[in-house]
Write a structure and sequence with these properties.
The chain is mainly alpha-helical. Among the domains are: about 45-110, Serine Threonine Protein Phosphatase 5, Tetratricopeptide repeat, CATH 1.25.40; about 175-255, Alpha Horseshoe (Serine Threonine Protein Phosphatase 5, Tetratricopeptide repeat). The protein is built from 12 helices and no strands. Helix 7 (about 140-155) packs antiparallel against helix 8. The longest helix has 28 residues, at about 160-185. The chain is elongated, with a radius of gyration of 33 Å. The termini are far apart. About 35% of the residues are buried.
Length: about 270
Amino acid sequence: MRWSLTIPGLDRCLFAAAAFCLAAVIAGCAGNEEEEYAERPVAEIYNEGVNALEGGEYDQAAERFDEVERQHPYSPWAVRAQLMAAYAYYQSNEYEDAVAALDRFIQLHPAHRDVPYAYYLKGLSHYEQISDVARDQQKTEDARRVFEELITRYPDSAYSRDARLKLDLTNDHLAGKQMVIGRYYLTQRHYLAAINRFQMVVDGYGTTTHVAEALLRLVEAYTALGINDEAQKMAAILGHNFPGSEWYADAYALVETGGPRPTEEPWYKVW
């Protein structure tokens, strides 16, 4: 026989107590949530973001500006807060978040007076991530694309002048990448591949600092292949555009002597 000890009404008391405790916990959580997400004056939140930004607390600033939009999405402050949040992300080197915020701002407010600045800041966010020419240049391409769009859409903008300067630097960087690849092909005797890269620099990046060397490398590659007419043509272009450069002196000497054969070492100028 199984014995059990029961006290009348105990189960009901325990259930009532448990329910009371659970209700208290839920009420406490709701109270905390209400306190945490209680709507506050928009100016107060925005000014907290400005103060954090001025104090160098960029993550906190971005959080405050995002909160402005969350609590007051239809206020004039929310539009400005979107741009300020992007700037805070940029300052904290969170470039991907900055680009996302700027893309959203441009999409939602295409006619806003600060759209040129949004493009400029987006370009800078890519520009700051440009890596050494030996590595992938996707961010350089992205920066160039955004700066070109800014200059095309807003040529008279206050930000377009600096964008043009940075666009020149991105082009120079991209040309440098092609030169690195072309030199590698040249040393490996992959002459046609090298010619394609150097010609790309001449045709696509004609205003960069790499053009003179690219023309010399074309002279070297064509000479190595025995295509002397093309070698002389490249040397003539080099002499016309860069008559006093060391690159032309080397190209002229190479054309005059006919150059060493591809089987001889070294057949190219050591750089």
